[in-house]
Inverse folding.
């Protein structure tokens, strides 16, 4: 774990560490936590590394890497016996009361703890307390090393290079673990890309920190981080980056957004990668996408709107004009978008909305995770209209779901809401390369040639014509020879406002019939996944980013002789009720795990399938569920000592 003031480069340094491990053939999983202010408050990044693929974080810290006092104060108690704390040598005598950003609850608990152990209310007191618990201490003279770097690169104003202290801290960590120095340097080069001066300065800083650790601490931990040789292509990326990649490679040509945490990261990533190399052979049937491309280069327009209302309306307009269009937001922004969502439903406009869930209500916990928007997404906007609601469980699912969302939206001509929780959006992980080719299905689009034939036969094109399947052939705005109307009111087949009861009945049945069609056509493997033997006495049911922690917990419990089955729900609407009932087996103990107060998935399953959960495990303090928490909870279930409702509370 590495921590420091927000805006000081904590994320970059953690990613340097994780990418170096990935380059060394290891798998990494990173969890990022930060406050809602832009600068100054405490942030930290925890990276878990293993020779096998890992999908979640845990609650234990082996190495706490710090360069400020607050990180020591907040996290020293999490370091395990035999672990290590790397800290700034000059800050050990700092009194804890001098840290202005500590909440009063944290200060109170620390004071109580130190009083009990007879230690001073200072960083020194905490460090000594950790030392008594079997934690090893590694003081680093950052200011001296920083001056040495300044001398070498001839930089007098050290404030200009102060952020390289982060890389020094990471270098010290990897040096303690006896990790190859050249992989750290390669990681630095990749992280800082086309900035040769920054790369050079950081590598110089890394070398000086490495040398200091090697010279000063000859006796280092006996558990080195070993490199593993592998030829398997792998990718290390953040959750919101996976969504952005899926959109771009899935044919997204327009994305609108208004800045909001944590959704903005996705749009910013798309802005930086708007030109995309495409395989033109795969686009032979997608003439409107292929048209105008040069040398297989596709492009997406990313537009920052003045607010979320404008953002959703822009995306709707782009969808009407024939572009694969999406908008990205979080809870408060989605609240503003719902009228536009209803307009899209009434006018059967293909629209993708990526909804990043964070703590609510209102502004709530802007930078913390939650799964409190499920029921809202299922029912948002007044009235009834068809929609598809997806919820990805990991980076790979986020990538494919982001791409398939456009297929669903265009094939069935409806809004698709793609739920991503903040924990997934801001977590980083190593995966075997999964960017396979993505099939693009644009649904039934009427060409100008077909329109010309209809006009010649004096047949009126009807945008909302009644069809047996419930999906009307659509044209894009500007198609030569066509006229149709869009309105928020109920309308007839051509789009003219109509309040006729017979027409209303037929139109509602036409629109809502798309859900039956989608439920028949969308494969089960894109909707529900099951893990385990299917014969365990305990069946876990969950959704979203908790998937990774559950799968990791299952492996740990299996090693201890306990088998658990797991059903991961990926498509909430339309819900595959029959398939779910076949998997769940009513005789088993059913436990629903989710990150909200009321158990929204459990309530939804009861309404859709008539199933009542035997147990619920919930967490709603804004921190993601850890593998450790789930292991502990499931052990209680296996022993028969678990209460009906368990509330998990771990988190800093």
């Amino acid at each position: 774990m590495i921590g420091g003031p927000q805006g000081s480069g904590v994320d970059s340094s953690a990613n340097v560490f994780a990418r170096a491990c990935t380059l060394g053939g290891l798998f990494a999983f990173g969890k990022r936590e930060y406050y809602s202010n832009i600068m100054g408050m405490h942030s930290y990044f925890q990276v878990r590394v293993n020779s096998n693929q890992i999908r979640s974080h845990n609650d234990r810290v082996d190495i706490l890497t710090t360069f400020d006092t607050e990180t020591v104060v907040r996290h020293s108690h999490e370091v395990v016996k035999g672990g290590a704390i790397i800290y700034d040598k000059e800050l050990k005598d700092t009194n804890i009361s001098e840290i202005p950003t500590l909440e009063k609850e944290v200060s109170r608990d620390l004071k109580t703890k130190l009083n009990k152990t007879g230690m001073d209310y200072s960083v020194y007191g905490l460090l000594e307390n950790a030392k008594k618990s079997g934690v090893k201490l590694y003081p680093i003279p950052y200011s001296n090393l920083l001056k040495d770097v300044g001398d070498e690169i001839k930089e007098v104003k050290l404030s200009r290079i102060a952020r390289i202290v982060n890389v020094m801290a990471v270098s010290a960590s990897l040096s303690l673990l006896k990790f190859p120095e050249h992989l750290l340097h390669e990681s630095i080069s990749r992280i800082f890309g086309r900035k040769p001066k920054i790369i050079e300065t950081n590598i110089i800083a890394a070398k000086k920190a490495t040398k200091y650790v090697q010279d000063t601490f000859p006796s280092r931990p006996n558990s080195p981080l070993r490199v593993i040789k592998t030829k398997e292509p792998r990718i290390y990326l953040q959750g919101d980056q996976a969504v952005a990649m899926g959109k771009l490679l899935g044919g997204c040509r327009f994305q609108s957004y208004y800045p909001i945490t944590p959704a903005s990261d996705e749009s910013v990533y798309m802005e930086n990668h708007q030109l995309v190399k495409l395989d033109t052979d795969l686009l032979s049937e997608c003439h409107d996408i292929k048209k105008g491309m040069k040398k297989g280069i596709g492009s997406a327009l990313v537009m920052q709107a003045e607010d979320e209302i404008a953002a959703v309306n822009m995306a709707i307009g782009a969808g009407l004009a024939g572009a694969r269009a999406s908008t990205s937001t979080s809870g408060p922004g989605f609240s503003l978008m719902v009228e536009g969502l209803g307009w899209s439903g009434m006018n059967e406009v293909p629209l993708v909305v990526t909804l990043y869930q964070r703590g609510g209500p209102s502004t709530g916990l802007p930078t913390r995770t939650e799964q409190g928007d499920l029921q809202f997404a299922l029912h948002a906007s007044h009235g009834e209209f068809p929609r598809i609601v997806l919820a990805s469980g990991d980076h790979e699912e986020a990538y494919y779901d982001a791409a398939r969302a456009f297929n669903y939206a265009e094939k069935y001509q409806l809004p698709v809401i793609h739920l991503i929780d903040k924990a997934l959006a801001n977590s980083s992980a190593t995966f075997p390369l999964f960017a396979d080719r993505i099939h693009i299905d644009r649904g039934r689009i009427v060409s100008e040639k077909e329109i010309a034939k209809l006009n010649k036969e004096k047949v009126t094109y009807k945008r909302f014509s009644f069809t047996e399947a419930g999906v009307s052939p659509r044209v894009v705005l500007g198609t030569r020879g066509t006229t149709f109307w869009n309105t928020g009111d109920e309308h007839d087949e051509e789009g003219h406002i109509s309040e006729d009861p017979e027409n209303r009945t037929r139109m509602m049945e036409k629109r809502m019939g798309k859900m039956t069609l989608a439920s028949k056509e969308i494969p089960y493997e894109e909707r529900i996944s099951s893990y385990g033997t299917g014969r365990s006495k305990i069946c876990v049911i969950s959704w979203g980013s908790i998937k990774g922690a559950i799968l990791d917990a299952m492996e740990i419990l299996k090693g201890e002789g306990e088998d658990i089955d797991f059903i991961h729900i990926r498509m909430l609407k339309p819900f595959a009720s029959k398939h779910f009932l076949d998997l769940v087996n009513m005789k088993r103990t059913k436990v629903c795990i989710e990150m909200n107060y009321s158990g929204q998935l459990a309530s939804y399953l009861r309404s859709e399938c008539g199933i009542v959960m035997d147990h619920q495990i919930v967490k709603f303090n804004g921190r993601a569920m850890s593998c450790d928490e789930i292991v502990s909870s499931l052990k209680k279930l296996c022993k028969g000592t678990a209460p009906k409702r368990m509330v998990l509370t771990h988190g800093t």
